[in-house]
Amino acid sequence: MYTLTILALSWQHILIVAIILLLLFGGKKIPELMRGMGSGIKEFKDAIKEEDKPETKTTENTTSNDTSKSN
User: Fold this and answer.
1) Tell me: the pLDDT tens digits for 39-53?
2) Taking 70 as the threshold, does the pLDDT of residue 61 lie above it?
3) What is the pLDDT of residues 25-42, one digit of tens each?
4) Spatial contact of 41 and 49, defined as CB atoms under 8 Å apart
5) Most confident of 9-13, 15-19, 24-28
6) What string of DSSP letters covers 23-53?
7) Which residues contact 66 (CB under 8 A, 6 or more apart)?
8) pTM of the model
9) 71: which of 2, 30, 42, 54 is 20 to 30 A away, CA to CA?
10) Torsion of CA 32, 34, 36, 40, to 10 degrees
């Protein structure tokens, strides 16, 4: 019950973290970092979606390749 209150962040905490990040990385580097993080998240989501799709095309290609090799 008390662990949830420990993990909760108020707007003051978020502001302090933002100021520290601004001091560490500077104003020009932060948009580049966020852009890279966004593209990484997008690639991750795309990979998850591809994994969920059935792989009927792949199995058809491998079976046709296997029959052509045996001839």
Assistant:
1) 999 999 999 888 877
2) no
3) 888 888 888 899 999 999
4) no
5) 15-19
6) HHH-TTHHHHHHHHHHHHHHHHHHHHHHHHS
7) none
8) 0.46
9) 54
10) 180
Question: Residue 42: CA atoms inside 13 Å, Cβ hemisphere, count?
Answer: 6
> Tokens for 70?
């045996």
Please give the Cα distance from 69 to 71 (Å, whole number): 6
Mean pLDDT of the chain: 77
Residues in the chain: 71
| CA–CA gap between residue 57 and residue 64 (Å, rounded) | 11
3-state secondary structure of 55: coil
Residue with tokens 């993080």: 37
Can you give the C-alpha Rg of the chain in angstroms? 24
